[in-house]
Amino acid sequence: MALTDFDLVLFGGGGDLSMRKLIPAMYARDRAGDLPATAQIICIGRQNWNDAEFVQALNENARQHINEKVFAQASWDKFCARVRYVSLDATDAATYQPLNDVLRSDTNITRVFYLATPPTLFARICHNLSARGLATEHSRVVLEKPLGRDLASAKEINLEVGQVFKESQIFRIDHYLGKEAVQNLLALRFGNVLFEPLWRREWISDVQITIAEEIGVGNRMGYYETSGALRDMLQNHLLQLLCIVAMEPPLSVSADAVRDEKLKVLRSLKPFTPTTLARNIVRGQYRAGHVEGKAVPAYRQEKNANPESNTETFVAVKAEIDTWRWAGVPFYLRTGKRMADQLAEIVVRFKAIPHSIFTQSNSSFQPNCLVIRLQPDDGLQLNLMAKTPGDGMRLKPVELELDFAETFKAPRMDAYERLLLDVLRGQLTLFMRSDELEAAWEWVEPVLRYWEHEGNEPMPYTSGTWGPAAASALIGRDGLQWREEALPE
């Protein structure tokens, strides 16, 4: 689907997200020939730069994040020629005239305002755009996470932004939904008859969703200290992945059909009780250790850290869904920094065979499981039991592997590339609706209140491990193991 002409306005255009993700994503799509010849990318910032000075900043900061396989100097120069820079104070509508001057007045041109700013600025920017007559019926606004700190602030953002833009114009972005493997999860579930009869409580033992990072907080301490792993990862990325795994088949892939089913999952999550708050949640904070053979400091020893901080860098939760399909099936969600490996994966583990006709002593039985890898390399892995070569009937686990990069030779789109194209096309399927956002906050907010009330410190875990021992106990109480613990030696 070809793109119509557009003006893309990046508030926070000189910031980290724009330099690392947004500018490289737009360059990649320009290099692929997706952008109309006259489309503009307008970057907003406070620095008093002209266009040439901003292009120099792009060369110094954005260029290094572009894959060398898709980079060509001529196409980069062509891309930079469509970039404009505007200096203004996003909080002051009186300073917006330079943006008026750069935006084109043609009503057939799509305007997209991407707010790569702190969420405290969302409402102010939207109202300022409205006050200057820039928020037209053909405009769209993109909101980056975090979308609030709790349910009340999320509702406030929805209310304030909704006074300027209609729901159909608001794109709440979660970049995990743009990953190729997440799209393939939808294809796997709803494009194949093989798994649908098994995708239910009668056949599935448990589901594990892990987003693990080897890195620490880096230069994000200011943000992370006020956020923590639950707000940063679980409330959005992990819950969105859970929704796609657990939702009922939508009527179509249209935006509201898919989002209606995701909302039903969020509203079916079993609410926390005082007992489950104490029993089914683990929070941790990394201590000094070694990652990839290098010594790394504790969270409290990172640059600009609070030496008495109780901010969690790890969280694991046992969730349950009260529906006919999923009643009794535990969903284990886990995320953390400074962990043993860099990965994001969904593990759907099936129940054990009801009766074995094989001699147990000669076989290494493991339940079948389906692994959907999201990063670092996306693909599918199905674990089965097979006979080993030779005399006798001895079984062992084997893996059927599908590497998407190997199978499909075409260049892969980054998550932000796909999502930005969807914004420019006005396709809302991969973006959260306001009721989804509020339902997610409603479920996790009791956890935040419990931590505030209890005031207990997060459990320490050594950098380079899989988190606190309590995370293993969380799943172990149900007679289960995290996937890396269950793998044969």
Features:
NADP; 34% helix; 489 residues; glucose-6-phosphate dehydrogenase activity; Dihydrodipicolinate Reductase, domain 2; alpha/beta; single chain; Rossmann fold; 9-stranded mixed sheet
- Assign the CATH topology of the largest domain: Dihydrodipicolinate Reductase, domain 2
At CATH level 2, the architecture of the largest domain is 2-Layer Sandwich
- How helical, in percent, are the residues? 25-40%
Mean pLDDT across all amino acids? 92
* Beta-strand content: 15-25%
What CATH first level of the largest domain would be assigned? Alpha Beta
Instruction: Let me know the largest β-sheet.
Output: 9 strands, mixed
Low-confidence regions: none
Q: Which structural class should the secondary elements be placed in?
A: alpha/beta
Overall, the morphology is globular
First-residue to last-residue Cα separation: 49 Å
| Discrete helix count | 16
Rg over CA atoms, rounded to whole Å, is 24 Å
Strand order in the largest sheet: 16-15-14-13-7-12-11-8-17
Kindly describe this structure.
- It is a single chain.
- The chain has 489 residues and is of the alpha/beta class.
- It folds into two domains: 6-144, Rossmann fold (3-Layer(aba) Sandwich), CATH 3.40.50.720; 177-413 and 446-486, Dihydrodipicolinate Reductase, domain 2 (2-Layer Sandwich), CATH 3.30.360.
- It contains 16 helices and 17 strands.
- It has helices at residues 16-31, 51-61, 73-81, 97-102, 122-131, 151-162, 180-190, 221-225, 228-246, 255-268, 274-279, 404-407, 415-425, 434-454, 469-476, 483-486; strands at 6-11, 40-45, 83-87, 110-115, 139-143, 170-172, 204-212, 281-287, 289-291, 294-296, 314-319, 331-336, 343-350, 369-375, 379-387, 395-403, 459-462.
- The strands form three sheets. It has a nine-stranded mixed beta sheet with strand order 16-15-14-13-7-12-11-8-17, with helices on both faces. A six-stranded parallel beta sheet has the order 3-2-1-4-5-6. A two-stranded antiparallel ribbon has the order 9-10.
- Helix 10 (255-268) packs parallel to helix 14 (434-454).
- The protein starts with 5 loop residues before the first strand and ends with a helix.
- 40% of the residues are buried.
- Its EC number is 1.1.1.49.
- It is an enzyme of class 1 (oxidoreductase).
- The active site is at 237 (proton acceptor).
